[in-house]
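User: Please predict the structure of the protein below. I'd like the answer in structure-token form so I can feed it into my own downstream comparison script.

Assistant: Understood. Taking the following sequence of 180 residues as input:
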Amino acid sequence: MNEDGAVRVARILEGAGFHDYRWVRPSDMIVSQWVRMKCMFGCPDFGRNASCPPQAPSVQECRELLSEYSHALLIHLACEMPPGKMRQWRLENQVRLIEAERRILLAGFEKTFLLSFDNCNLCEVCAPTPSECRQPYKRRPTMEAFAIDVYSSVRKFGYTLSVKRDRREKSDRFALLLVE
């Protein structure tokens, strides 16, 4: 991507309200089998979300997709919402990211693809399979669904991230917008 393209993409992202991001190489993301295991054996949404495992591609397919890209935006979303307001915050940010992805696609970057910061929040109750999804054009997997070790990956780019022990603590979320 040339400098003009990077500027155009950044303007769209900033116009959507996302200002804390870094250009990264997708090959620098750490893809690990243990992340998939945490989804399978630790996530209460396993099998309940059309964008998450077991509906997600295999770990090897995730690696292969990332290798097809040379540019991505790692987007940091900081949240200090009380637990009762988190769903609305997630929904609003999900919608804004999907719209930014659409605008970047329409600007000529046809391989643009979003790996979101959270499970799909577009519907009150997510469909468990892609065929049942009520919003298939907006459904996006998370970085974790793509077996990306978010903790180790974001630290490589200067962000700090730690496991939260209390739901009232400030939450740091990350999305990866693949752009080619």
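That's the full token string. Helices lie at 3-15, 33-40, 59-67, 86-106, 150-155.
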